[in-house]
Design brief:
The chain is α/β, with parallel strands linked by helices. The chain is built from 14 helices and 12 strands. It has helices spanning 27-40, 77-86, 102-116, 147-161, 180-192, 206-218, 253-261, 290-294, 303-314, 317-333, 337-346, 361-368, 377-385, 398-416; strands spanning 10-11, 18-19, 50-52, 62-65, 91-93, 125-130, 166-171, 196-202, 226-228, 265-268, 352-356, 373-375. Strand 1 and strand 2 (18-19) form a beta hairpin. 39% of the residues are buried.
């Protein structure tokens, strides 16, 4: 039984007929039909959980993040990378700005040592990012990127990585002051010179990506084949970080589907919302410092500034409810909250991958074990809508259920109006 479909429209009949939230059906008809659907399932309640996947997720859908490599609790990034490789991780996300270049140097040293032990460079997919210059935080007024500065940043990355090429090179932020056609030309020059195999963008709007694709098609050049926006079970309340883009909101499903039709991979960052969707009691609602969240912006780059932006983005009523539901699913299925959260994002399309951070072998095992599972429709839809009538409600007399039905219907209509 599912009231809200994956595309955000309400199902008003068992047969699957749908209308938009602002369609012609009256609220009373909606409530009556919703009641009928729920009551018809009182005896035979469907899953709401995790089931074996009919199409196993590939390890290629899991991209290991490296931003924390310089500061691992163990102090041994080489061991973590060894453990990741042994478990099947072959794709690694880097950036010139991560650790001010330290992440690339650490990874480059590991890859160099691994090659001496028989690891084939062609088996490793190096994803790195540039184009921001000395800007660390996404300042829209940073120094303009140029053909020369972009090439110089890439050269520095390749030197640090001890490799001749990047498998995917991404523009870490967009800069609307520069025409998309310029970026397409510059990235194709890097491809033609053998410095990168393909290119992508990070934190670009859908409209700018469409523009770049159209120009590439018109000029018979390579278009971007990957985009990296924020994507997680937690829907952010505004920009998480300056000059970033998100496709987590259910209203973005059309955009995600368009990327699939164009052969563009969606590589979601902060898939666990900085731990909010991995630790069930992290930043509990009662413990939040409202003065921090609602107060003036803290100093750029400070730890308080980071915490303020994270909590403003993720600590919302709807996200707490999504976490509660996901934790319930995790406990009933024997998985972790992090695993359920990642399954949700991966289930948005076979072209979707997630950037996952890990600081120990246990976390790597959690990620690897995702490959054989998926959420059933009821679980997916409930997490999307951030609302669900618990199974316990089905032992309640129908008359007593009516307030719950009204509350659920109101919530659903407001969510998608």
């Amino acid at each position: 039984m599912s009231i809200v479909r994956r595309d955000g429209r309400e199902r008003l009949a068992k047969g699957g007929a749908c209308v938009g939230a602002t369609g012609s059906a009256s609220f009373s008809n909606y409530l009556a039909l919703a009641s009928a659907v729920i009551l018809s399932n009182v005896i035979n309640v469907s899953g709401f959980g995790v089931v074996p996947s009919s199409s196993v997720h590939s390890m290629d859908n899991l991209v290991l993040g490296t931003v924390a490599l310089p500061n691992l609790p163990s102090g041994d990034p080489n061991q973590l990378l060894d453990d990741a490789y042994e478990r099947g991780f072959r794709r690694f996300d880097l950036a010139r700005t991560y650790g001010l270049g330290k992440s690339e140097k650490i990874f480059g040293k590991w890859m160099d040592n691994a090659s001496k032990l028989g690891v084939n460079r062609e088996d490793i997919c190096v994803v790195t990012k540039g184009g921001m210059g000395n800007d660390k935080y996404g300042d829209p007024n940073r120094e303009l990127c140029t053909r020369e500065s972009l090439r110089d940043e890439l050269t520095q990355s390749l030197d640090a990585l001890r490799t001749d090429y990047a498998d995917i090179y991404m523009l870490h932020r967009d800069d609307p002051r520069i025409e998309t056609c310029d970026f397409v030309d510059w990235m194709n020059e890097l491809i033609n010179d053998g410095l990168i195999k393909r290119w992508g963008v990070s934190n670009w709007s859908w409209e700018r990506i469409q523009s770049a694709c159209n120009y590439a098609l018109m000029t018979e050049q390579d278009k971007p084949t990957a985009t990296s926006p924020q994507l997680s079970l937690a829907v952010p309340n505004g920009m998480v970080w300056p000059s970033t883009e998100s496709v987590s909101c259910p209203t973005k499903m059309g955009e995600i589907e368009w990327y699939k039709s164009e052969g563009i991979e969606v590589m979601g960052w902060e898939a666990l919302a900085k731990g909010f969707m991995a630790v069930p009691d992290l930043w509990d609602e009662q413990s939040l410092d409202q003065n921090l969240i609602r107060g003036p912006d803290r100093e750029l780059g400070s730890n308080e500034w980071r915490m303020q932006r994270i909590q403003r983005a993720y600590c919302t009523k709807e996200n707490y409810e999504r976490r509660r539901l996901a934790h319930q699913i995790a406990k009933e299925s024997g998985l972790s909250l992090a695993q359920v959260s990642l399954l949700y994002s991966l289930q948005k399309g076979e072209h979707v991958s997630v950037l996952v951070g890990a600081d120990c072998a246990k976390h790597l095992d959690e990620m690897k074990d995702l490959c054989g599972w998926e959420l059933d429709d009821e679980a997916f839809d409930s997490l999307t809508a951030a609302t669900f009538v618990p199974k316990a409600a089905f032992i309640t007399p129908p008359d007593a259920m009516q307030p719950n039905l009204i509350k659920m219907a109101n919530s659903t209509l407001l969510t998608y109006a």
